[in-house]
Write a structure and sequence with these properties.
mainly alpha; about 220 residues; Endonuclease Iii, domain 2; single chain; Endonuclease III, domain 1
Length: about 220
């Protein structure tokens, strides 16, 4: 199977079997999504969704969040991983939104990465989810699944994986392909015990084919 054929088969499968795929983070506007994605770093979406309602209730706008003190915000996110840093990032992010971007979430990667707590992955998530831009956010799920399937080859960093993926995935599918790979990694292609036996991508998966070759012959 050529690499092009692998991409075609994988994408075709997801188009047919997962035509609707979107973030599992709960949000009502770009500001809320930005807060949620910052909090989601090394934390589950489920935990973030349990935490954000109180934040959005108390700080429904960037202007109000910018006025929050560390002592006021920290108790609302103390159950999230790295709460100290994320509290500082959220307040800093809100201040920059207000002072630099007129209270609006910018929609370019270059602008977003200027915000505290926002790296390339987060910027790619915001622009692809809100604006369907062809930006591929590579988190641990995407990085793992893409490598196992054989979509990426010898990609040792998220940026290297991102470049390979956007090279082969049609632009109009990049924003949803991000969710396909995440959800597949979250529920099927698990890190420690991938559910290969029940996975519908067996015939196009480089990892599965390699494992099969290791099996002793009857």
């Amino acid at each position: 199977m050529t690499r092009k054929e692998r991409y075609q088969q994988v994408l075709s499968y997801f188009q047919q079997n997962m035509p609707v795929a979107e973030t599992e983070l709960m949000y009502d506007n770009p500001y809320q999504l930005l807060v949620s994605v910052i909090l989601s770093a090394q934390c589950t979406d489920k935990r973030v969704n349990l935490t954000t309602p109180a934040i959005f209730n108390q700080y429904p706008t960037p202007q109000l969040l910018a006025q929050a003190s560390f002592e006021e915000l920290f108790p609302l996110i103390k159950s999230i991983s790295y709460p100290n840093n994320k509290t500082k990032h959220l307040i800093g992010m809100a201040n920059m939104l207000v002072n630099t971007f007129n209270g609006q979430v910018p929609m370019t990667v270059d602008e977003l990465v200027q915000l505290p707590g926002v790296g390339r992955k987060t910027a790619n998530v915001i622009t692809s989810v809100i604006d369907a831009q062809p930006n591929m956010a590579v988190d641990t799920h995407v990085f793992r699944v893409a490598a196992r399937l054989g979509l990426t080859i010898k990609a040792t960093t998220p940026l290297a994986a991102e470049k390979q993926l956007i090279q082969y995935i049609p632009k109009e599918l990049v924003h949803i392909a991000h969710h396909w790979l995440i959800l597949h990694g979250r529920y099927t292609c698990l890190a420690r015990n991938p559910k290969c036996d029940s996975c519908a991508l067996q015939t196009m998966c480089a990892y599965f084919q390699k494992q099969q070759k290791k099996q002793p012959k009857a």
